[in-house]
Amino acid sequence: MVSSSHEAMHRIFQHDPGLFSRVTHFLGIDLPRPIGATALPTDLTEASPVERRVDTLLRFETAERGPFLLAVEAQGKKDPDKPASWAYYVSYLWTKYRLPTALLVVCQDHATAKWAQRAVTSGPPELPTLTLRPVVAGPHNMPVITDPDEARADLVLASLAAITHAAEPVVNAILKALSTALSDAPEDIAAPIVEFTAHGLGNRPARHLWRNLVAVDLSFYKSYISEEIRDEGREQGREQGREQGRAQQGAQDVLLVLEQRGLDIPDGVRTRITECGDPEVLRHWLARAVTASSAEAVFESE
Predict the structure, then answer these.
(1) Per the domain annotation, does 236 fall within a domain?
(2) Using CB atoms within 10 A as the burial measure, which of 141, 157, 170, 178 is most buried?
(3) Is the pTM of this model over 0.85?
(4) Contact 106, 137 (CB under 8 A)
């Protein structure tokens, strides 16, 4: 099953194709700035029953060199079969559209990024023939944006910075800067950034921080994230209520057994039993109350 972080790593380029130009700045690649971009169909399936789909496919227009294609692949881990698939994507797109075709691989850990950026050839060393050299964006080269003003200047890049550093300790500072920057952004601009960031973080611990930041810094924002937080809060409240109810009933049971056995219950013992909020402890006390020689003996082993 495709993970939410996988989808966010490439769909963010569909949301803002111009992000690619800003990313290449950090990769040290000098490309003409596109004057237009179009999302193309991602289905690369041929007449044969083998289905092949690139994650995101964009067509860029430039004034200096004309159009070119960009295939964006999100890669969560090393996969020995991927280089051959990527080579197929590039050669197929080049054949189909007759346009220069580039490949960008987005990763979230150093090991996968290092693996993905290796040059891979289709032939023996003496006859390399077709060589694949993906451009890789990951925690090793994406900016660490911890200044709210810097994040505010390019919200989409700041979101990608958080996504690519999702497993790094610095992600917390990036998320705080991004949430601050989004707090004064129009909701139609903030909404997709919040969603991309949440999906891109996946199930990593940083996701919980982001949810809390959204709930506090972006309290105006209505989304599935904020609704999840509210639903969880309501459920936690209901569970706490049920827990308190079980504790109250448990305390009454302990006192009832002691009273039925005719044992004297000092005020201190009664208070300790009624103020206990742990149903498990009260169950232990209830079991002891059946045979205890005095009310105080209920706590003897403690």
Answers:
(1) no
(2) 178
(3) no
(4) yes
